[in-house]
Write a structure and sequence with these properties.
Elements (H helix, E strand, L loop, with lengths): L42 E10 L2 E11 L4 E5 L6 H9 L5 E6 L13 E4 L11 H12 L6 H8 L14 H13 L5 E5 L7 H16 L3 E6 L10 E6 L2 E6 L1 H8 L4 H19 L1
Parallel strand pairs: 3-7, 3-8, 5-6, 6-7
Antiparallel strand pairs: 1-2, 1-4, 8-9
């Protein structure tokens, strides 16, 4: 669901100005063929580290997201995807440098411009779907999208006026998503939004995501469904708090010579493990 940043649970931790690293090499740092610089990244991360319970769980991540791009964050459960997303929306303490829309994550300057859909159900079960979406539209204020348009995007027309408590799991997930979409965000962060959805609904939602990106919204979406990598402009393969690769689905298959993204991901993991053992 959309987490309007009106009440962030934790403020980010101190940055680490003494440890400078080169900017991550991404399309955002390149120049167009006419020699003009491209738009500034919506998200810029350098040496991101998160420690929890005395144990470091994100290990020096670098990340750059360009305007209007769709980036897939792929990896097994527990690899740090949700922690990274929580950092970007301003509810996770961290060390390193993180900029979202030119400001600190979760700061007043960006709260209304970022939407976050969490994994679990995070809407009011005693309200109808329409009431939930309308509530978050009011929070978003003038920038909010038309509620009926969003209802159509997520395919909830037949149940929208029933209490969410009567919804199936897939229908409830779509209400979560609708509450994020109605805010018309500049950055949309979604934690496994298609889990439990049927193939037709997944296809419709991905068309909606692509239309939003074409309209300028930057999207970061996590998934453990590897085939969804083909729907993204770039994919970040993640394991145990580190990025194994930043690539595209097509490039990944070419580089590994594997027939599926699942097989290619396993090949990357195997190669990384072999290098780690050799280094030790």
């Amino acid at each position: 669901m959309m987490k309007n940043r009106q009440a962030s649970a934790n403020s980010p931790g101190p940055h680490d100005p003494g440890h400078r690293r080169p900017a991550p090499h991404t399309a955002a740092s390149q120049h167009s063929s006419g020699g003009e610089p491209t738009a500034s990244p919506v998200v810029e991360v350098r040496d991101l580290r998160v420690t929890r319970g005395g144990k470091e769980i994100l290990h020096g991540l670098d990340l750059s997201l360009t305007p209007g791009s769709v980036t897939g964050l792929l990896g097994p459960s527990g690899c740090g995807k949700t922690t990274l997303m929580r950092t970007l929306v301003g509810v996770q303490r961290y060390r390193g440098s993180v900029s979202v829309l030119g400001s600190r994550p979760g700061s007043p300057a960006v709260r209304a411009r970022v939407s976050y859909m969490v994994q679990g159900l995070a809407v009011y079960r005693d309200l109808t779907g329409r009431q939930n979406i309308s509530y978050f539209a009011r929070i978003a204020g003038e920038r909010a999208r038309n509620v009926e348009e969003v209802v159509a995007d997520v395919g909830l027309g037949d149940v929208i006026d029933r209490p969410v408590s009567s919804y199936s799991g897939g229908e409830a997930s779509r209400v979560n998503l609708a509450c994020a979409l109605v805010a018309n965000p500049e950055l949309l962060v979604m934690d496994e939004p298609t889990v439990g959805l049927d193939p037709v609904t997944r296809e419709e939602l991905w068309r909606t995501f692509r239309a939003m990106a074409e309209g300028g919204t930057t999207i970061l979406v996590s998934s453990h469904v590897m085939d969804e990598a083909f729907r993204c402009d770039q994919v970040l393969l993640m394991r145990e708090g580190r990025f194994l690769a930043t690539t595209t689905a097509a490039e990944l298959l070419t580089q590994t010579g594997k027939p599926t993204v699942d097989a290619a991901f396993l090949a990357i993991i195997t190669g990384t493990d072999t290098l780690t053992k050799a280094a030790s």
